Structures are given as structure tokens and as C-alpha cells.
Amino acid sequence: MAIAPGNPAPDFTLFHAKGETLTLSDFRGQTVVLAFFPAAFTGKCEEELCSLQDALAEFNELGSKVLGISVDGLFTNLAFASQNALSFPLLTDYTRSTVRAYDVAYDNFVGMPGYTSAQRAVVIVNADGIVAWSWQGANPGVLPDIEEVKAAVNAA
After folding, report:
1. Is CATH 3.40.30.10 the right assignment for the domain spanning 13-155?
2. Residue tagged active-site, from 3, 24, 45, 74
3. To the nearest whole number, what is the mean pLDDT of the chain?
4. What is the pLDDT of residue 117?
5. For 46, 64, 139, 142, which has the most beta carbons within 10 A of its beta carbon?
6. Quick count: other Cβ atoms within 10 Å of Cβ 103?
7. How many whole angstroms separate alpha carbon 49 and alpha carbon 35?
8. What whole-number distance in Å separates Cα of residue 12 and Cα of residue 24?
9. CA–CA distance from 18 to each of 75, 81, 125, 129 (Å)?
């Protein structure tokens, strides 16, 4: 299960563009939506991230920042963001340290022994760096309810 509300959000620094990184603690003072997804260029991940993009203006109005996180490589995430016109950062956790810290590592993904992906999960970090809400799909085919995510951001 994804990290539980009330816990400090583990800090991380991950690549999001050619040579550029983002650090979670740099967003102190605002709410952050961490959307962990299993794999770029898959139908359900595209559906989820495009839904987040469609709601991005509402998340911005709520004073929150949306960050997508997967274990996909930097250039894969850049191509996926470009193909789907995603304007929020997609971060690459190629070391799997962040998915492990947030307890959303999916070991042996799609039956591939030794391959670890991210489980589909959403974690909301409040302005103080504390996990305010978390959700994890029962399996990679289950998507988060975007309205529920927005309500959780509003309550954070």
C-alpha cells in the first residue's frame, strides 16, 4: 500500500528533462500531487495522465503542482509527454529509490522476473511536506478517480 497519510513525504530529486532535475522539498508551501504510473506508452497510463492534464487548470487553481513519476527512462518520458501534450513534469525514477520509499514498487511487473515498475498510485503531499492522502490501484488497470484526487487536494 502506498505511504499512509500523516507520514512525512520522502524527499527525492529526479530527472524530468534533459539534464534538469526536480526536488520535492523545493515545493514546500504548496500541495503536490504525485502520480506514479507503471509505463509510458500504455493505454491506461495515457488515459490517466491525459485526465490529469485535462484537470491541470483546476489543480493549479487549488495551488497544487502535479508531477508524474515512473521508472521509464528520461527520453521515454519526454517522448510520452510530447506525444500526449502533457505540460506537467514526468520524472524518471530509474534507480527505483522513490517508488520504494513511497511503497509503490511493483516487482516482477507483467511477469518479468527482476523488473520493477511503479504501481499505479497517487500521493498528495501537503504544504508542510506531509502525506495528506494516498491511493493505490488494486492492479495496473485500475485508474484513480480524478474528482476524488481534486477533493483530496482541496482538503490538503
Report:
1. yes
2. 45
3. 91
4. 76
5. 64
6. 17
7. 8
8. 6
9. 8, 13, 26, 27
